[in-house]
Amino acid sequence: MKFTSIYVHIPFCRRKCNYCDFVSYPVEEQQQYFSVYGDLLLKELNLWQQQECDFSQLESIYFGGGTPSLLPVETISKILSDLPQAAEITLEANPETVDLVYLQQLRKTGVNRLSLGAQSFNDQALQSMGRCHTAEQIKAAFAAARQAGFTNINLDLIYGWPYQDKSILQADLQAALVLGSEHLSLYGISLSEQSPWGQKKLAGQLAIADSDLSADMQEIAMETLESAGLMQYEIANYAKEGFASRHNCAYWRRQNYLGIGCAAASCYIDKRWSNLRSLCDYTVNVEQGRLPVCEQETLSIDEIIAEAIFLGLRLRQGINFNQFAEQYGLKPENRFAKQIRQLVNNGLLVVEDGSMRLSKKGILLGNEVFYKFV
Amino acid sequence: MTDQHLIRNFSIIAHIDHGKSTLADRLLEYTGTVAARDMSKQLLDSMDLEQERGITIKLQAVRLHYHAEDGQEYQLNLIDTPGHVDFNYEVSRSLAACEGALLVVDAVQGIEAQTLANVYLALEHDLEIIPVINKIDLPGADPEGVCKQIEDIIGLSTENVIFASAKTGEGTLQILESIIKLIPPPQGDLQKPLTALIFDSHFDSYRGVIPYIRVFDGFIEKGMKIQMINSGKSMEVTETGIFTPTAKQVERLNAGEVGYIAAAIKNVKDSQVGDTITAADNPCPFPLPGYRPAVSMVYCGLYPVENNDYNDLKDALEKLQLNDAALHFEPETSVALGFGFRCGFLGLLHMEIVKERLEREYNLSLLITAPSVSYRASCIDGNVIYVDNPVKLPSANELALIEEPFVKSTIMIPSDYVGSVMELANERRGTFINMEYITPTRVMMIYDLPLAEIIFDFFDNLKSRTRGYASLDYEFAGYRQADLVKLDILVNEQVVDALSCIVHKDSAYQRGRALVTKLRSLIPRQLFEVPVQAALGNKVIARESVKPLRKDVLEKCYGGDISRKRKLLEKQKEGKKRMKQVGNVEIPQEAFMAVLKIKE
User: Which one of A62, A159, A211, A336 would you mutate to disrupt binding with B, by most B Cβ within 10 Å of its Cβ?
Assistant: First the structure.
């Protein structure tokens, strides 16, 4: 099995944010698991290597979470030394967890891209989200990262949170632009019922941006960021020329990626699987030398094609018909002629130069396009 | 073989919730028909729907064996009846197969509208009625008071009244003994040619139509050649049996007995409820009176969400009709919805139940259009037509006059609520006929009301204005002229025929406004703005618009968990499938019922 990307999931946080529904646990309550987690990751990686996994053409490694910057640098270093060099190695960090020393050491391990979970530059909002940092700390972390030699930095921002209006969004965008990151990820808030805010929303005690405001905000962001030289290369991702995240694109291009760690997701040709979501199950399985895999599914050719289309359309460049036909042995413009025509008529899809891509309107209405191919 | 003088055929009649099904359970248990350990609550309400809603919809027949105090073993055939006003028709079918009935009245509630209606039905069939005052264990029970009501209001002797509690079992023995002593045994003649009444039937995928029968004269057994008198079809009996309450084969069914037969009847139409079965080689001279056909009170269009399901829907309706003789249907076509059926029902509950049964038992996804009554339209050219679909109403310049069906409704309430009921009846264009004090605190009010007003949430309204204390019964009283107009609804500038309705001119504006407002909230936002208008002829009287959808996209990446994204999209696609594409607009099923969901 040849993988070109590796995702490492770190399911620990100082505390859980109010909007979060990712698999992540407060580190203080999970010390027993946290203290051995680095060893488990190494062990799991070994288990995969015994499965004849080929990492020789690795392009990206991504430490995501949770809060990967809670890991000691030595752990990250050990994992990376077990793997071949990759062109892009990202680590997600929460601003309050990193200082210059940590970042300098981190840079030395080979990590060359830092993704800072800023979310907002509004202190009040940060506090109500349950974040553990202030706007000042974002700026400090960013400056330290630059000083440590990171020349490829991403900022994560969330919009549409309670009480955020368009002017607050503008302020957040401006603050991010002032820092001058190479990459920016921008997510509209979406609340699952499990999250504390989701619960409150369900009880009618919390209002987030409705779909109209959210649309306005996304349009503002698209305009503001593009005019600042950050190109929207994917629905939620913006980058300066040459800084689009390779790892991110691996997902949208259906490349083979291996996820290690609790709850990490993997994709290999027609197989998708997930690792165990409970820390206890994950730990026990890996300690006993078993692959911690669950929820494996094998996709039918139709499902693969559907995925390839709805993922490919997320990218600004969209889907090139010839390339697609070469890769999947099927001409999407024939198979989905009716859907494509309808979507073009509705102004959601643009077909030109042998490709199809979302229109500006279609970016905001992606699901209305995607489900047609499912 | 059981001698006829040891057979008793009886029904239990009652107002809804007065404990009819619980009493049936007690009788089954007491006679050992069903062992206590096998008892599930409300055993005869076997449909999921019946148990969920706590009502009896279908009648059921079950044979009990009772060892009476006189030392003899009796065969008791209990034919259960539904209690809701919509299902009067089924009650009357059960009663035709019986010689007697237990009239169950709640000791706290006293006589209700359905109590009266059911008693009149039983008297029409000449049945011996045994009053049972139930729930005497409840605090507030007033059996003597209720007894007096039975005498005063119904005019029934309470000489043989039984005080009982189906819950605790008190009075069960006395009920069984009274059945033996008071209800006359069947008076059939075993020597005469076979005469049997089909009072119900169901469809079995292996054995075909299974008619439930009451044998009046002669006998029926396996191998016998029989003929249905009305349909003229002949067939050979392959099985005879009884319900215990599960089906159990018996050698033959004799005069006076109740049971079922199988005769490889493939076609639903060959064995209609109400038909008389006789022997092919020795027919009886006259058919039994049978039933008057059930009169539909409410009509609506029933359409498959997927046009391809039309034939499945047709099949399902035919099979369901077998089990529900009061259901009428004929094909119709809607510009908006395609091919479907115009169906006639006894009432709204009946309509809902049919729809739910079709969806559950036949796995269909259905659209139901706003219910309508049948109007009588006289045209200028002298033609008179009945309009059960608003679309068919002739245009204003062809019409001489429109009449609508009126019902005589009986409402029973505590006297405190007389004012609120009068107010409601006036709002609904009712005419006061009479009012009578049943007791110093209970009142019976009679109103003439347009049926159309009754079927639209009248009962819900009545209940809420009387804190749930009111009961209602109604019967058709004739057609009356009224100032009626057709209200059209336009979605995206196109008339959606399935949303048209006929309304009184004075309430047209208000109805139109309420309808478009409701529709605006029911029609999901589309990719473009969708105007929703109400119009009388060419005149738009109300307008709302469904704003275009601007945003619907999954932004989050979930660390490469694409399966989650795909599942969300599949779910979205499923959701769209449940909508009907009308022109360019996707309209959800509920929207076609919007007219029922308008709160005043």
Answer: A211
Tens of pLDDT, residue by residue over B323-348, are 777 789 999 998 888 899 999 998 88
* pTM score of the predicted model: 0.71
Helix (H) or strand (E) holding A322: helix A321-328
CB B113 within 8 A of CB B24: no
C-alpha span between B376 and B394 (Å, rounded): 11
Determine the Cα–Cα distance for residues B10 and A142; give it in Å rounded to an integer.
88
Predicted local distance difference test score (pLDDT) of residue A101: 97
Contact B562 A307 (CB under 8 A): yes
Domains along chain A with CATH numbers: 5-252 (3.20.20.70), 305-373 (1.10.10.920)
- This model of the complex carries an ipTM of 0.90
Instruction: Kindly list the residues from chain B whose CB atom is less than 8 angstroms away from the CB atom of residue A269.
Output: none
Q: CA-CA distance, B30 to B8, in Å (whole number)?
A: 17
Beta strands at A88-93 and A60-65: parallel, antiparallel or unpaired: parallel
Residue B570 CB: number of other CB atoms within 10 A?
Answer: 14
Query: How many distinct helices (H) and strands (E) make up chain A?
Result: 16, 17
Q: b/e per residue, B526-539, with b = 16+ CB within 10 A?
A: bbeebebbbbbeee
Report the alpha-carbon angle B528-B338-A340, nearest 5: 40
Question: How far is C-alpha A164 from the chain's CA centre?
Answer: 23
List residues bridging with B406 in a β-sheet: B450, B478
CB B475, CB B449: distance < 8 Å: no
- The residue among B49, B135, B133 whose CA lies nearest residue B84 is B49
Q: Report whether pLDDT(A364) > 70.
A: yes
Q: Which two tokens stand for residue B207?
A: 């054995």
Shortest CA distance to B359 belongs to which of B40, B49, B600?
Answer: B49
Q: Which residues 6+ apart lie within 8 Å of A285 measured at CB?
A: A276, A291, A292
DSSP secondary structure letters along B74-125: EEEEEE----SGGGHHHHHHHHTT-SEEEEEEETTT---HHHHHHHHHHHHT
Find out whether B501 and B452 touch, Cβ atoms under 8 Å: no
Q: Is the pLDDT score of B95 beyond 90?
A: no
Tell me which residue of B405, B497, B410 sits closest to B452, measured CA to CA.
Answer: B405
Per-residue pLDDT of B239-298, as tens digits, reads 999 988 888 899 999 999 999 999 988 877 777 778 899 999 888 877 787 676 677 888
The bridge status of strand B128-134 relative to strand B162-163 is parallel
- The pLDDT of residue A216 is 96
Within 8 A by CB and 6+ apart from A280, the residues are: A33
Residue B347, CA distances (Å) to B53, B298, B299, B459 in order = 16, 6, 9, 11
Bridge pairing between strands B366-368 and B338-345:
unpaired
The beta-carbon neighbor of A265 closest among B525, B561, B568 is B561
Calpha distance A275→A281 (Å, rounded):
10
Closest by CA to A304, choosing from A337, A346, A262, A335, is: A335
Residues of A near B (CB-CB distance < 8 A)? 7, 9, 22, 64, 186-188, 190, 211-212, 214-215, 218, 235-236, 248, 251, 257, 259, 264-267, 272, 274, 295, 297, 303, 306-307, 310-311, 346-348, 363-368, 370-371, 374
Cα separation, B81 vs B23, whole angstroms: 12
**Secondary structure class of B320 (helix, strand, coil):** helix
CA proximity to A234, closest of A137, A154, A175: A154
Q: Which residues of B touch A (CB under 8 A)?
A: 525, 527-528, 547, 549-563, 565-566, 568-570, 572-573, 576
Written as six digits, the tokens of B193 are 């040619």
Burial class of residue A279, CB neighbours in 10 A (0-12, 13-18, 19+): buried
